[in-house]
Structures are given as C-alpha cells and as structure tokens.
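Q: I'm writing up a methods section and want to include an example of the input and output format. Could you take the sequence below and give the corresponding predicted structure tokens, formatted cleanly so I can copy it straight into the document?
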Amino acid sequence: SMGGGFRNQGQSMTIRPRRSVLYMPGSNARAIEKAKSLPADAIILDLEDACPIPDKVATRAVVVDALRQPRRARGYVRINALSTEFGYGDLVAVVQREVDGVMLTKVNGPDDVKIADWLMTQLERERGLPQGSVEVLPLIEASARSTTSTPASAARRMLAEATPLVSCVWK
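A: Here is the clean output for your methods example:
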C-alpha cells in the first residue's frame, strides 16, 4: 500500500492512508473532471509517462488548475525525472498551495531527493507557503536498491540519507 510522503518541519507527522489511488494523464481533462467526484483517497495527475511529449509543458498549468478546483481526494502530480529536460520546469510549476504533493520519478539515490527537497523549500518560501507543505513521494528505481535488501528497507535507508523531512514511503 502507499504510505504517506512528508516534508514538514517541526510539525507532528500524520500518516494519511491512501487505500485507493487514481492515476490519470494530466492532459486528459475529461478524466480529471470525472476523477474529482470519485470516492478515491488520492488522485495523481501524470506529467510523465502518460503525457505525450508535445503536451508536457502546456499540461503543467492544466494539472495545477485542476487541483485548484473542489475535489474529494488529495491531489498529487507525478512529475518527470529531475534529470530530464522537463523535471525542473514541472517542479517549479506544480509547487503550489493547491497541490498536496509531488511524486518524484526515477529516483536513483539520496541526492535526487535532496535536490527536490531543496528546490521545493525555495519555491515554498518564495510563494509564501509553509515549509514542507507540499509532500514528496519518491519512486525509487530498482537499480538504486541493494540486491541484499528489500525495496522497503532500501527506500528507508536512502531517504534517511537524503533528508529528515522525508519520513515514509511505500511498504
């Protein structure tokens, strides 16, 4: 199951269970509209694999606008890897008050999480958001895991090295 991602500092951490999660392409306005009314715990609007390359930049505003609308579920954006030409722009566009969290893709080590956390912190400060208010949910690449550990233990170890602000991932 998907656990919670956190970045808050000095605040009590509450794990919010996500029993049902809907993924959908950020470029599919009709699917996004329908998803806002469904009884899911979270919706994840995808800017990565499910979004065609020619649409990626324009879709950033679409997903943020969608998450500004009333919805039942927590709202997350799955961004392109920070190592791609789209990752930085995705992160800059989606760290907004209305976005509950950012799903980092293709995380290969603690430095990927540190970079994202640093940039998100700067964006939150610039935009007057409480530091750590936008969650980070890292998707850790299989190649980043040790062959002698479970995915969950490798993820915990990597995140412990990365930052104290990210405390929980999938188990």
